[in-house]
Write a structure and sequence with these properties.
This protein is an alpha/beta fold. It folds into two domains: 20-49 and 161-331, Rossmann fold (3-Layer(aba) Sandwich); 51-160, Rossmann fold (3-Layer(aba) Sandwich), CATH 3.40.50.1100. It contains eleven helices and ten strands. The strands form two sheets. A six-stranded mixed sheet has the order 1-2-10-7-8-9, sandwiched between helices. Strands 5-4-3-6 form a four-stranded parallel sheet. Helix 7 (163-182) packs across helix 8 (198-209). The longest helix is centred in the middle third of the chain and has 20 residues, at 163-182. The chain is globular and about 60 Å long. It binds pyridoxal-5'-phosphate (PLP). The site of pyridoxal-5'-phosphate has 20 residues, from helix 3, strand 7 and helix 8. Pyridoxal-5'-phosphate is lined by residues 49-50, 79-80, 159, 161, 193-200, 288, 291-292, 319-321.
Length: 334
């Protein structure tokens, strides 16, 4: 089913659909199912990545509401904040960020990777807060201060994961179905990282609305599987509501695997380092240390445990994030 997004104010930040490529060498190396990759790391806006799709709808809404300043928050190395800054630059809007020092004492997190690009993109004010700060409250105060000084603020939630932002991945599910039909491929499973949940929820809702039976497996980056499933299911429900109730029911069906995030959000695991190295060396593709590296760890492990049959086809969604490699080079020295 082709979902109609015309009722939403949307900006378009990517010129083409992102490619779906076969990972020939990785598939052979692992000896399991055929693995394909959806290259959302090649989406538009500086450095690309999954937030570009969400921001098409969020910034469209901000502009329609007459905003002149985008405010959002995340970790110091947030890809979402970098891409919000990129969208603001492109639209001639101002951008202010609240960035949380999730892991303390790593100098490169303050100066390199996404944090460096934030500066380059001309973010107006960056407020840095410590790991014990209530990030939502800090962003609320920050937004109120900006409004009091006359800014027309549009606040974007963590990861752009409200129902409106999630529409970006409903659109991505549509794109995948169109591409798989023209490539004559039937994906059995789609694997993606699952953080604030909008990517997985949008894919889930999009496939269910289109009556596709592909299963979406989210590999969590910060939460146990069950609590992430509730979060994703809630968003699936909200995005269906936003699209209108005649789009069917997908609620309650999310599958999240919480076995691969290690000790916590953005904390490295040896398996993540191996996965990032492996995909770089076999496929010339850069994953990231926080999201796609851990999701790939999950995919590799599930293949090794025989969770997929060798006649199945899986699609890994590369949601971007490679700029964070440059703030974490110490993890990868041989
Ligand atoms: C590179 C990358 N991949 C995946 C995710 C997770 O996506 P979501 O927050 O939609 O679950 C994020 C979120 O920040 C991200 O930056």
């Amino acid at each position: 089913m082709n979902i109609d997004f015309s009722q939403f104010s949307r900006r378009f930040y990517s010129v083409h659909a992102t490619p779906i490529q076969k990972l020939e060498r990785l598939s052979r190396f692992l000896g399991g199912p055929e693995i394909y990759i959806k290259r959302d790391d090649l989406l538009g806006l500086a450095g690309g990545g999954n937030k570009t799709r969400k921001l098409e709808f969020l910034v469209g809404d901000a502009i329609q509401q007459g905003a002149d300043t985008l405010i959002t928050c995340g970790a110091l190395q947030s890809n979402h904040c970098r891409l919000t800054a990129a969208a603001a630059a492109l639209e001639g809007l101002k951008c202010r960020l609240v960035l949380q020092e999730v892991v303390s004492g790593i100098e490169a997190h303050h100066t390199n990777g996404n944090r460096f690009i934030d500066e380059l993109l001309g973010v107006e004010i960056i407020k840095t807060v410590s790991s014990d700060t209530d990030l939502m409250a800090a962003m609320g105060d920050f937004s109120m201060e900006a409004s009091a000084r006359g800014c027309k603020v549009y606040s974007i939630p963590v990861g752009g994961s409200n129902a409106l932002g999630t529409l970006g991945y409903v659109a991505c599910a549509n794109e995948i179905l169109t591409q798989s039909a023209s490539m004559n491929l039937n994906f059995d499973h789609v694997i993606c990282p699952s953080g604030s949940g909008g990517t997985q929820a949008g894919l889930e809702a999009g496939f269910r609305i289109s009556k596709s039976d592909v299963s979406v497996i989210g590999i969590t980056v910060s939460r146990p599987g069950k609590s992430q499933e509730s979060k994703v299911n809630q968003l699936v429900w909200e995005v269906q509501l936003l699209l209108g109730s005649d789009h069917g029911e997908a609620s309650g069906s999310a599958i999240c695997n919480g076995d691969y995030f290690g000790e916590g959000y953005s904390l490295p695991t040896p398996e993540m380092i191996e996965a990032v190295r492996l995909v770089a060396r076999l496929e010339s593709i850069l994953l990231d240390p926080v999201y796609t590296g851990k999701a790939m760890t999950g995919l590799i492990d599930l293949i090794r445990k025989g969770e997929f049959r060798s006649d199945q086809i899986v699609l890994f969604v590369h949601t971007g994030g490679a700029p964070a490699l440059f703030a974490n080079t110490q993890l990868f020295s041989d």
